[in-house]
Each structure stands twice: as C-alpha cells, then as structure tokens.
C-alpha cells in the first residue's frame, strides 16, 4: 500500500470512450512524488510514444487529438495538511506558447478527486460530441454535455451539482473561451479558481470535454497518523506567526502586494513603460478590503484565507457578487493598463472567471494593444470605435468579453500578446517570455525574478521560482546579480516539490524544505531527507526541460523582452536599473549542468533520468 495515495489513476480515451485504471510503482512515486512531477514523467514517456508513431511533436498542433491533458494530485492533497486542496494540470503542448502546458489551482477539486477514489486523470484523443466526466464514489462515467455546452463556468457548475444531487461536489470546467479555442482560455474549478495559464482551457475545448465533476467519501491513508497530526499543529502555528501568512494575506488577500511592490518601483505600469503607478492606492488590497469586500473565502484545508468574496455596489460596473480579483489580476487588468478603477477591474476579472480566461495574459495583451494604438499601429477599422487607450476602464471590460467570443479586436486579445504584436508589426511590445505574458514584478527592480522569468520552463512565470519572497519581502539585495543564479535554481527546484505534493505555494513564506520533509515523511512512511527531496525537485525541473528541448526550445528562448534589458527604469525606487541577464544566465546554466539551456548527458545520468 502506498500511503498518501489512493493508488488509482484514470485514463480516458475520448475518441473511443474507453476508460481504464492504472497506478505508478512506489519507486516512481518516490522519484517524482505526484502532481507536477508525475505529470512531467507521464508526458515525457507519452512524447516518446508519439515520436515512435512518427508524430513530430515540435510541429504538432496543440489543439490536435494527439495532445493530452493530465490532472494530478499529490500525496499531501486532501490530507488536512495545511492548504492541501490543490491540484496540477499539464499538457504536452500549450496553444498559447508552443511550450509545455502547465497550471496549478486551489479550491476544493483536488481534494474531492481523491475523495472520489482517484489520484489523477489523463485525457487522450477527442470526443466527436461534447461530453463531461463524472467520478462519484469511485465510479467514472462519461455523459452527454450538449445541454451545458455554451454555458459559462458558473452556470455549468450549478447545473452539474444539481444534476448529480451533489451540492458540494468539485466541478472543473471550461467556459465559452475554452469552447471557442481561445489560446488564453483556462480550466476553472469552483467557478473562481483556475488552472490559469498556458491555454489549458483551449485544449479541453478542443477535446469537446466540458467538465469533470468529482465527489465521494474515500480518504487517503496516513502512514504515521500521530506524528502527522503533531507536525500539522506545528506547521499551522508557524503559518499563524509569519507576517505574510498570518497577517498580510489574511487581512488584505494577495492584493496586499499592490502598495508594497509599487513603493519599491517594480509595479509594471503602462505595459511596463514604468514601474510606478501614481494612483495604485485605488486598486490596492487596502481599498479592496475597505470598499468592495464581502468576506474571505479560503480554499479547502486553508489556514490563510487569502481568497476574497467581493461586490461593486454602484456605477456602470455594478455586480452583486463575485470573487477576487487577486493581486496578479488587479495588476494585469489595472496597473498594466493604467486603469485605476477598481470597479472596472472587478468586472473584467469576473468576465475572466465566468468565461474562463487567464487575467494575466488577457490584461497584459490589452495593455500591449493600448501601446500599439498609442504608436498608431492598429487600424481604425480594427478598433471599431473603442478607445483602446491607457487608463480607459471601459476598454478593459469590453475587450475581455470580446476576447472570450473572438469578437473584433478581441480575437487578437485572446490570441495573446506575442501573436497580436507580431500581427501588428511590433513584436517587441509583447512583454512575454516564450510566449507567456510575465506577471506583476518588473525585474529591473528585482534581478532574480528576471532570471526566473527567462529560464522558467513554461515561460514568463513567477510561481516557478518566486524569488520576490527573498528579494522584496526578505533580506536579499534586489538590485545585485550576485548569488541570483543559485537563488533562482533553489527556488525553482523547491517549487517543483510544492507543485508535486500538491499544496499551496504561499506556505513557503513560513515553511521550508525541512517542514516539507516533516510533511511527506509521516504521510508516506518514507524515510526521506531534505537533500533527497531537493534532488527530486531538481529531477522534475530537468525532465520538464528535456520535454522543452524536444519541442525545440533551448537557450535562445531563455531571454527577456528588449525593454527590460536595455531601457532603464525611468522613475521611482528602482530608477536607472536594467536586467543584466547574460552573466546570471551563464552562471545558472553552470549550476544546472546545462549547455545552452539543454541538460548535459552527465546531469541526466546524475538525476537518473535515462528513462
């Protein structure tokens, strides 16, 4: 028996409608843990199978039936360890970036999948008609989804819970954006939680898969229950005592960062033309709490409760109930577009949730469109009378719903900033890495996060290696490049562990590698060390990079937009700074054992990745 796991994974071939159970042997569980790790392992082997069949995965259409979706929990998920309701979703290829598809989400769905009796699900092929999958009390079934095809994520969730008479069941689904194959589409669960990046929702839509509803009463078994309960109490106390997890996030949500990051001069504003938003207070966590907050809304098993239930009581963006927006959405839809109207940001974020889109990519692409228009590069007929200008709240609301339905300029907004900026002849205006729009920290004011953006496997991503925790919220000099290669590598490998366990990255403000050993050991019964665990994280990071190499991505793609490398920050607390990427990158490659972004044979052997 493998403690911490349900011992059962479901493979669903949507083309043939065949379903079968499978499991991973204990040695592979220990080498890759679960969540992201096992997904990466599965994708690597699936890629090799495709190549044997003559499929060129580098040229493969991400929306073809050959792509797969892998939903995965980990040994920590659903165990009552703090913040353990999360799950990870991966695809071999992203329709937005052409790189690997990867998303991590909270809520309750991950825990409910395990309670339904399964550790994960892999979807292959494509259904000829819309379907949804139910797993209730260990029984998987495919159903006709024609009645809910076209519904938004809120209506889909309620319909499925009522249909199956399971008001608390976990529902993961796509909205109209996923059905319309929008590359910025996401997979939503519990209506307002998202596997939110790299276009995973479009892949689900391409397979005619509308939703997955899960529920049950099964529970993962713990190897050392008494020791586990003791450690859980200790970890909860550490979370409560930490300034970020015990005070900042519970009080103001993730938007607590708006003023902090802005004051440090790295809050990307007007499509990264500056790092200072002079009216950021209007879209801050403090303002959200004072004027728009209904209540907190924690994920399953969460002791932090950063989620927000909100409303807009008056004005043109009035809405009686929604959730969020989180820090990244506030920045992308607000700071990046220079829109300091919280009501408009909340409304646009709500559209992202119910239509199923990534607010980081959508907001960033709208900001890029504003700069393109500022430079006179978008023809009047494409604008259709809409004022696509920095600071215009109506523009972010209108373009968000237009993106979901591929209407007018919204078509290009949904395609992401790289494709849109290439279309209008100014690719340098896209603030993305490997085709994925970067999040809310300008690396000219924190050099480590710049190295992470450049080298992160899925593209411009902060949660691959959140060095901001040390550079802005900790005591590491944010302007130096010294030591940033080692810092980035450590954060990336540790994050691979968190995303494989699977639980919340916010725990790492208070809990480090030793605490994760204390978590995993009692759950699984493994006599595991911190060194072994970090090596496992390195193994996962490297195998994911090996998949990227198969997709044609190498060191040439580990870079940043020209603006960040050459244009000095014009003002604020980070004034005069650029990102000196190349020396950090070369040191990083040396520490990684990579040559031009490719793991060497020696590194592959060291990590036992000759698989």
TrEMBL record:
The keyword Oxidoreductase applies. Belongs to the AOR/FOR family. Its cofactor is tungstopterin; [4Fe-4S] cluster. SMART domains: AFOR_N. InterPro entries: Ald_Fedxn_OxRdtase_dom2, Ald_Fedxn_OxRdtase_dom3, Ald_Fedxn_OxRdtase_N, Ald_Fedxn_OxRdtase_N_sf, OxRdtase_Ald_Fedxn_C, Tungsten_al_ferr_oxy-like_C, W-dependent_AOR. Keywords: 4Fe-4S, Iron, Iron-sulfur, Metal-binding, Oxidoreductase. It holds the Pfam family AFOR_C. Residues 5-218 form the Aldehyde ferredoxin oxidoreductase N-terminal domain. One of its GO terms (molecular function) is metal ion binding. This is Aldehyde ferredoxin oxidoreductase family protein. The keyword 4Fe-4S applies.
